[in-house]
Fold N5-carboxyaminoimidazole ribonucleotide mutase.
Amino acid sequence: MVIIILGSKSDLNWGKEIGKHLNNFCVSYKIHIASAHKTPEHLLRILKKYESSNNPIIYICVAGRSNALGGFVDSNVVHPVINCPPYSEKYAGLDILSSLRMPSGVSPMTVLEPDQVAVAAAKILGCSEAKYKEKILAFHQKLRNQLLKDDEEVTVG
């Protein structure tokens, strides 16, 4: 199960895009909105609910501008956390730095694209669940087949 946490409703399209790619691997997910800056108590309640589960959980945090969300979540859970911040033209992408530099002991991963974060989540789940491992293997084979086909189409001589 993947829990996508958005810093605000303005991140919803990015979260839905992640969900679309998770569907390709048959990974179930839920989307929540909670801000580390504005609603930390609400965020802690959400985390407590999922942390009490015995099921494998991966948190994907989507927050633009100053991303405290991923670090806050990571410091309060035992399951993997992946930041997937939406790109901002306004800041020429420099807001990514708030997803990369973390205090000691806080270690969320950062993946920049919705399709790539879905692959990362499926791979993590595949470490303990064979059905996701099989989906990843099939996904990689499809990529290889497409590259071979593309090579045949463009090879001259």
Remarks:
- The two ends are 49 Å apart (CA to CA).
- The longest helix spans residues 130-154.
- The mean pLDDT is 94.
